[in-house]
């Protein structure tokens, strides 16, 4: 049987703060590391070279999944492990990945549960765990559609689920979280603009009061976000608040365009991870 080779692929843009930890976690299982970099101005390229990565310099794209696909298409291995720079593959997951790609089977892809760090801990409730993501697949069988911000890879044929978790260290501080909050609220404002949402009294009440309240109740009580203590409360609160902030951005941009710049065009970008009925990390 031919030895199966693993390509670890990433898309980056100014990820010097996170990248070394990510690459260190996969260097023992990666036959190659391919990074599509959007012309970073920090030490991203320097760090990548230290790990022997093959770097492809590409222009910035509002749809980050386009950049990810460039890395995927450039990979030479039999299997793709697609990661974000703020993700870490712990040893037990690395061993499991090595095992499943080594053994001959008809499986073409694997879902991996993801644990999301928020401020001081990994969130265990509030709909934030498990957070399954389809990241491991045969090169010829999987790819990102690059159509929507919340999409998963599309894999032909049989797909199964790995046992061990991927670790996601995104929101290490409130400052970092608010950067994403601002980008994601602009994305939602863009959605409202595409939908040409009206400014009637019902829409205003819905987005400024009802929706944030229901989102908070859903995350904090129905999905037991209270189990995660203060981080669980803050996450539930701000997951609801993103809707009035987005509505206000949409209102200002639409009604007073001369007094504001347009919301960031994040429709179809790689930011955020909202799946199903439960609010995900913005």
UniProtKB/TrEMBL annotation:
Residues 258-282 are annotated as: Disordered. The chain crosses the membrane at residues 201-221, 233-251. Keywords: Membrane, Transmembrane, Transmembrane helix. It comes from the Bacteria. This is Glycosyltransferase 2-like domain-containing protein. Residues 7-121 form the Glycosyltransferase 2-like domain.
């Amino acid at each position: 049987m031919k030895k199966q080779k693993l390509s670890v692929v990433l898309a980056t843009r100014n990820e010097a703060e996170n990248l070394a930890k990510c690459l260190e976690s996969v260097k023992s299982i990666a036959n190659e590391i391919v990074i599509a970099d959007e012309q970073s101005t920090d030490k991203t390229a320097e760090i990548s070279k230290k790990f022997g990565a093959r770097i492809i310099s590409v222009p910035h794209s509002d749809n980050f999944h386009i950049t990810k696909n460039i890395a995927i298409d450039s990979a030479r291995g039999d299997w793709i492990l697609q990661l974000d720079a703020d993700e870490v593959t712990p040893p037990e997951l690395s061993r499991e990945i090595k095992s499943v790609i080594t053994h001959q089977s008809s499986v073409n892809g694997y879902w991996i549960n993801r644990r999301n760090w928020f401020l001081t801990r990994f969130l265990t409730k509030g709909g934030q765990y498990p957070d399954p993501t389809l990241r491991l697949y045969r090169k010829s069988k999987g790819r990102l559609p690059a159509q929507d911000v919340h999409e998963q890879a599309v894999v032909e044929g049989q797909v199964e689920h790995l046992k061990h978790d991927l670790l996601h260290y995104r929101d290490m501080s409130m400052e970092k979280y608010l950067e994403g909050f601002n980008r994601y609220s602009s994305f939602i404002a863009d959605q409202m603009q595409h939908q040409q949402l009206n400014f009637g009294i019902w829409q205003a009440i819905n987005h400024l009061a009802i929706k944030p309240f229901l989102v908070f109740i859903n995350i904090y009580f129905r999905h037991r976000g209270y189990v995660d203590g203060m981080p669980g409360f803050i996450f539930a609160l701000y997951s609801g608040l993103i809707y009035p902030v987005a509505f206000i951005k949409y209102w200002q941009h639409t009604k007073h365009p001369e007094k504001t710049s347009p919301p960031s065009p994040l429709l179809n970008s790689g930011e955020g991870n909202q799946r199903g009925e439960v609010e995900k990390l913005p």
